[in-house]
């Protein structure tokens, strides 16, 4: 019996349901089953852009696909999901068991997505895997970056081994995603913002760039040093939960933005509502950056190599 506390936001309920579905399948099926891709990352607590993914696993013997029913909770319905066996085994033998569920490790799971066709979701998953696995911390940012670089080297090594062993599909795209993903993204929304930036701008992009201004020490979400541009994402959690919180946050933003401008940065802000319309945000950002290239508008065009190499 799954017990979910009342009053939880929908995204958190979705996470509970995702994990409960996987745990139920793990108990009822062959112990040789290895949950892979989004299912593996979900079990291991890596935040993803969306929820209610199909449950994916690999095992050496044939298994029929199936469907799990919808779940009704507190006035809304979580849709049914498919349960699918994938033909591609894990890249390595690095497997672990989380709460009785056998999964491929986070690196293999993120690479599996990066070699697939959903580049936007894969990029965000890669950023969040790097963030969690590097134990990224602003208080120890130097050490965090070293761990991130070590992870990136291991990811690249695994892709090279896969290529040597005859894997072809998705390798080049996965290498691009590994190269451009960044552990400095604190949540999936910031990773989506980085995706939008990297899809249209080929110059250096730095995350969590430290600036010591006259009124404090700041870590800017994204900086484009060659253009002296700071891009700040105003996520929902930054707004506060009361009118008083919102007022104080706005005052803090004003002081921070003025300080950044005094330090020579041009500040661009984007909100959660703007991020939800990615093509429009992308075009707006391109205009602000005064880019002359044609701007793609679909996810497949976003990752044209000409824009991110």
From TrEMBL:
One Pfam family linked to the record: DUF559
DUF559 domain location: 209-277
Entry protein name: DUF559 domain-containing protein
Organism: Schaalia odontolytica
Taxonomic path: Bacteria, Bacillati, Actinomycetota, Actinomycetes, Actinomycetales
